Amino acid sequence: MGERSPDEEAEVRVLGLGNVLMGDDAAGPWVVEHLRAEYEIGPGASLTDVGTPGLDLVPFIGGARVVILVDTVKSKGEAGELRFYRRDEILRYPPGPRTSPHDPGVKETLLYLEMAGSGPEEVLLVGIVPGRVEKGLFLTPAVAAAIPEAAEAVAVELRRLGIPALRRPGSAPARPWWAGEEGTAP
Amino acid sequence: MSKRITVDPVTRIEGHLRVDVEVDGGHVKNAWSSGQMFRGIEEILKGRDPRDAWLFTQRFCGVCTTVHAITSVRTVENALDIAVPMNAQYIRNLIVGAHAMHDHIVHFYHLSALDWVDVVSALKADPAKTSALAESLSPWPHNGTAVLKGVQDRLKGFVEAGQLGIFANGYWGHPAMKLPPEVNLLAVSHYLQALDAQRNINKVVALLGSKTPNIQNLAVGGVANAINLDNEATLNMSKLYFVKEALDEAQKFIEQVYFPDVCAIGALYADWLPYGAGVKNYMAVPDFPLDEKGTKFDLPGGTIMGGDLGSVKEIKAFGDPYFKENVTESIAHAWYDGDWQKHPYDEETVPKYGKWEDDGKYSWVKAPRFQGKPMQVGPLAQVLVGFALKHEPTVKWAVKTLETIGAVAKTKVGPEILHSTLGRHAARMIRTCMIAEITQKHWKLLVENIGKGDTEIFRKPEFPSGEQRGFGFHEAPRGALSHWIVIRDGKIANYQAVVPSTWNAGPRDGKGQVGPYEASLIGNPVADAERPLEVLRTIHSFDPCLACAIHTLDVEGNEIARVRLA
User: Fold this and answer.
1) Of A59, A93, A100, the CB nearest to B545
2) For chain A, how many structural domains are there in total?
3) pLDDT given for residue B12 in this prediction
4) Which residue has the higher pLDDT, B392 or A89?
5) CB < 8 Å from A in window 193-212 of B
6) Which residues contact B471 (CB under 8 A, 6 or more apart)?
7) ipTM attached to this prediction
8) Residue B312 — pLDDT band, cuts 50, 70, 90?
9) pLDDT at res. A7
């Protein structure tokens, strides 16, 4: 237990978003688990499974220089396809009026922090097109197959930023607590 | 001719909260509240080890993580009839208290303030006059002219660049916006400062919970925070002082910013005080336990029927039969098979989706009832119950709030104004002020207890064979949350979560009684049907929590709530 949560202090923060109980919505947290299990990541970057915090994203993004978000995205593509977005593309459309604090809060959080003068300089969203998003602890095969690819995309970005992020040879595959013994199998 | 308005956010693959209102003559005549998504996540828990349930329940919702974790361990402890060490109670109390302060601040400033504050009007404010006004209300040191001028300049930059950013979809310029430019500027400045307050208080949850947003330190039987004042790696004095500093900072923001802001908005929107009462049966559960078994608490719970404070009946302890025996859920108007009204232990969740029918089934949310009646839950329920029970901190903060509102509005106001949309905001603030004091107290209790040499944090639970039933509750930021468990031979046989927003957002029941959201909307004014700001004001005042289960970001489309007129 540190004095501060290191997740909230790192310069570069990798945040996996999504609900691990809702099928493919867990893709973001899965990528974080995959990076933890199979990569050696140098100092200066943190990996966090943030769940679905809505407006509570503020502490996780505030004060970071670079934020790499991994999330499912609504898109016309096939399940398992990756989509990449930078800050301006994420903010091209303004956020809508909210009915609840739980609506996805990525756009709002970026705008709040920018307005308050503590927004990140760079943002990359690694988006994964989901297949089935409903109650369940497993990914669909197409999305499960995309996890290593999405993790490598995060690693490439980290290396571009000068942070070592290399695959650890012979590491055991990720086995997140929620997925039990069967891993990603349906 | 009446007009039908549907407010239906389309931000996800599946929908969530949808509200339909019928407007006639500028007022809402009828209302329907609908959960547009099947949850049923409890099914995932069946057959699992009850000691793991909290890890899953805290993923029910991304914002209310801590509250489902705490409630789950209390539930299993109740089923096993076990007590937890005092250090565990205090540490849990500090976490839930910090979480509640964080949550209430975010709700007021970042979710609902823009219902009342016209951002664009702030550009017309005189920063010096704004500063003078602020200093007449509060000793907060960050209300100076230079700070306010800086906020105004930044806002101006956004507007001139043609992008209002975060405010782009606010209902600015709406005829129902009434604040003078100076108050709007002050509110915008505090809106930005609240971001720092939010980050600050989150540190307490992160340190004690080992991690946020999903805490890791809980266990059925206690907590996993090893205490050793001589060890760097455990909970020690330097970490405890770090917590204390964050609590001090939070309390200052709450008392010097949140308190006067809510009072000022309440006073300046005095014409809104008659709206939004709705269901006047209230229920709160006691919280911040002061003993191992949960029989003494720092915040009281109970019920009030028909708005009569004299009818108050206390819920006294964890496991109180008055609570246990009177809760049922009705599916008469919800998309489940059947039309029963059952106790949570006996429920089975069989979804049966049909189309929307105004007089039939129209929601995925069940309708919880207490003694067969709809109940409003949330900070207002808790404050009214405390007030009716003459709970000293509640009375103190409620009186102070009403006096301040009266002074700004230059009129005398009594507790009856709390039965309203704005009353829910006032009550949430009152509760936050109390929690700021209570967390200070529990910090002191924890330090004193450790000082006496007590470092016990956990007692291993034993699971007997056969069946045990139990329930746990927590007065969460959105109100009374309860989990119900049936354990058979050490495994979960049934699990139900009756969440606060189910009480408030639930549909009609078998007797046709409307739920609290629905009741509160009937009679609301609506000035402009294309921009139903007033409907959002009342719904937001409850702090809705339905869209908890999934998160898919829509980057390529316009992420906007749809308002449909029919």
Assistant:
1) A100
2) 1
3) 31
4) B392
5) 195-196, 198-199, 202-203, 206-207, 210-212
6) B75, B78, B79, B319, B323, B324, B344, B482, B483, B484, B485
7) 0.85
8) very high
9) 52
Contact A104 B11 (CB under 8 A): yes
Q: What is the CATH number of the domain that holds A162?
A: 3.40.50.1450
Residues from chain B that touch A73, judged by Cβ atoms under 8 A, are 552-556
CA B66/CA B58 separation, integer angstroms? 6
Contact criterion met (CB below 8 Å) for B374 and B512: no
How many whole angstroms separate alpha carbon A43 and alpha carbon A123? 19
Structural domain of B62: 3-565
pLDDT tens digit string along A102-161?
566 788 888 888 888 888 999 999 999 999 888 889 999 999 999 999 999 999 999 999
Is A133 or B558 the better-scoring residue by pLDDT?
A133
Closest CA to B179 of B121, B219, B221, B228: B121
What CATH number is attached to the domain comprising B314?
1.10.645.10
Residue A82 inside a domain? The answer is yes
Rounded to two decimals, what is the model's pTM?
Answer: 0.92
Q: Collect all residues of chain A within an 8 Å Cβ-Cβ radius of residue B203.
A: 4-5, 8
- As a residue count, chain B comes to 566
- Judged by CB atoms closer than 8 Å, whether chains meet at B110 and A112 is answered as yes
Query: Sorting pLDDT into bands at 50, 70 and 90, what band is B178?
Result: very high
> Cβ B207–A133 below 8 Å, yes or no?
no
Q: Which domain holds residue A110?
A: 6-182
Instruction: Answer yes or no: is A1 within a domain.
Output: no
Q: Does some domain include residue A35?
A: yes
Determine how β-strand A66-72 pairs with β-strand A122-128.
parallel
From the list B60, B154, B560, the residue facing A115 with the nearest CB is B154
Q: Give me the total of CB pairs closer than 8 Å, taking one residue from chain A and one from chain B.
A: 242
Question: How many domains in chain B?
Answer: 1
Contact B549 A93 (CB under 8 A): no
